[in-house]
Write a structure and sequence with these properties.
This protein has 87 residues and is an all-alpha fold. It has one domain. 92% of the residues lie in helices and 0% in strands. It has three helices and no strands. It has helices at 2-29, 32-55, 59-86. Helix 1 (2-29) packs antiparallel against helix 2 and helix 2 (32-55) runs antiparallel to helix 3. The radius of gyration is 14 Å and the shape is globular. The termini are far apart.
Length: 87
Amino acid sequence: MYQQRERYNIVSVITLGLAILIGFIAILKLSFLLVLFSILLIAISIICDALLLNISFQKFEGLKQLARGVILFFLITFLFILYVKGL
């Protein structure tokens, strides 16, 4: 149980750090695709945080975070598909 919690925490922190780095690069290069990827990484971080909350017996907060993450994930995936089709 502790190992799984630690794994979710590590994935959450790594994806958040990558989102900051890629977001900064996206701003410098003015790349819409990198912005979408950065927001997708934020959604993954939110989902990992939701799973972490679910393990730590905060079920309602975990479900709210999971709903936010999944909605963000699907919306960003939809925007990515529209962007690729537009090229």
